[in-house]
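re: that chain from earlier
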Amino acid sequence: MITILYDGDCPLCQDYVKRLRLVEVAGPVVLVDARSDHPDVIKAWQNGYDLDQGMVAIIGNSAFHGAEAVAALARLSSPNTLYNRLNHLVLSRAWLSRGVYPLFKAARRLALALTGKTALKKPLN
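^ sequence. v structure.
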């Protein structure tokens, strides 16, 4: 099973996780809004993952954050759409994913600003 913790207020993040089509190749996928009080969100923050700096993908017993999460998800994504083929081609390589990820973070910050949303904050738990 795969669990993805992502910013549910970010339209770019929403689009990204929906387009991956992971269910077709990897089985059940749980999408969790990182702005919620879901136990996995709280656990991610407690484990030192800054969800404002990147999504978290929990694949089996392993957690991946930011660029590593995108790379891991790209390696698992279905190849049957152009979007996913390009995603796999570019982002499945960890070094390239690390290079591109800062652009994704900047686009997210811009999208949040344009929609009047705030950054994610660590829960007080």
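The chain is about 50% helix and 15% strand.
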